[in-house]
């Protein structure tokens, strides 16, 4: 039976840009497994009976531990790079780990470091997309990019990240696997933007449209050190909620923000952003509820039952009132 290589990656800007860098440096024929940003239990889609090598990028290890153990037991060789919080790093003879849970890094930066900055512009797109603006700005200073080029990479990263949010692929403008395949051949994101203006313009116009709609939303609840916002069960809201959460965090670095989006089943999806001045605790708070997880600065809950909404808001306010 022919063995297959798999690239498993988060469908957001960080996951896509990490894989672009890696495959530019180390080309390999691989089957792609990805999805919307919150579709993180991706390793279970890998068939261990036909697997040879698996590359996993920007996908939390803990939710994928059973599938990871199964693949390792079947002899798969796995390269794992990620920055999400986890209980314990798995070790195995055929598992190569590059895990860094610092709130000042992302998977694109982990790959950038491994490649000695060989495809730095793509790393910057992924870093800006992951809302690590100050980290990316410091890296730009070392590259000598002008302000116009820096802003273009920042916008592009934001747009790619915006494209990853939704309940299903039907909410997205481009399936992440398709977007990756379009961008992957280009050593520079500037070349891609020049040769595929329709893709860039489609992302930009939709982002601006949804941003205008969300600009009229007022806080659902305000507390000392935190704000809560509620969005409706509509496609535009599902697309914009993650990037909107990032923009709220950037407005006031001392405030924590929670963006709650209604779901068609009566429950809620939640984005949590810790204060940028103290980027900790979002992962722990999210993990205290079923279907929650993430990283220190930014985390989420995929499906919060309606009856737990008040408990979440109370826990969120208490968590961040202590940090003002």
């Amino acid at each position: 039976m022919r063995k297959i290589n798999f690239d498993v990656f988060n469908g957001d800007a960080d996951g896509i840009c990490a894989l672009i860098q890696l495959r530019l440096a180390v080309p390999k024929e691989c089957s792609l497994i990805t999805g919307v940003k919150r579709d993180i239990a991706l390793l279970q889609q890998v068939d261990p009976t036909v697997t040879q090598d698996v590359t996993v990028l920007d996908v939390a290890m803990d939710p994928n531990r059973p599938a990871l153990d199964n693949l390792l037991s079947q002899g798969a060789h796995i390269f794992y790079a990620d920055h999400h919080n986890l209980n314990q790093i798995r070790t195995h003879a055929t598992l190569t780990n590059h895990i860094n849970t610092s709130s000042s890094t992302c998977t694109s930066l982990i790959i950038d470091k491994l490649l000695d900055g060989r495809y730095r512009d793509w790393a910057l797109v992924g870093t800006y997309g992951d809302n690590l603006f100050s980290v990316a700005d410091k890296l730009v200073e070392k590259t000598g990019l002008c302000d116009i080029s820096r802003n273009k990479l920042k916008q592009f990263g934001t747009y790619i990240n915006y494209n990853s949010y939704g309940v299903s692929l039907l909410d997205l403008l481009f399936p992440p696997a398709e977007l990756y395949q379009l961008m992957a051949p280009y050593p520079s994101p500037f070349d891609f933007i020049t040769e595929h203006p329709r893709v860039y313009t489609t992302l930009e116009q939709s982002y601006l449209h949804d941003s205008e709609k969300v600009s009229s939303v007022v806080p659902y609840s305000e507390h000392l050190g935190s704000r809560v916002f509620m969005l409706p069960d509509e496609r535009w809201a599902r697309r914009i909620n993650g990037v909107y959460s990032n923009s709220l965090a950037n407005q006031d670095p001392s405030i924590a923000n929670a963006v709650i989006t209604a779901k068609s089943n009566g429950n809620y999806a939640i984005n949590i952003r810790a204060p940028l001045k103290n980027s900790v605790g979002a992962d722990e708070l999210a993990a205290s509820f079923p279907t929650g997880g993430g990283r220190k600065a930014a985390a989420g809950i995929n499906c919060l039952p309606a009856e737990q909404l008040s408990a979440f808001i109370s826990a969120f306010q208490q968590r961040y009132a202590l940090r003002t």
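The chain has a mean pLDDT of 95. The CA atoms of residues 34 and 42 lie 7 Å apart.
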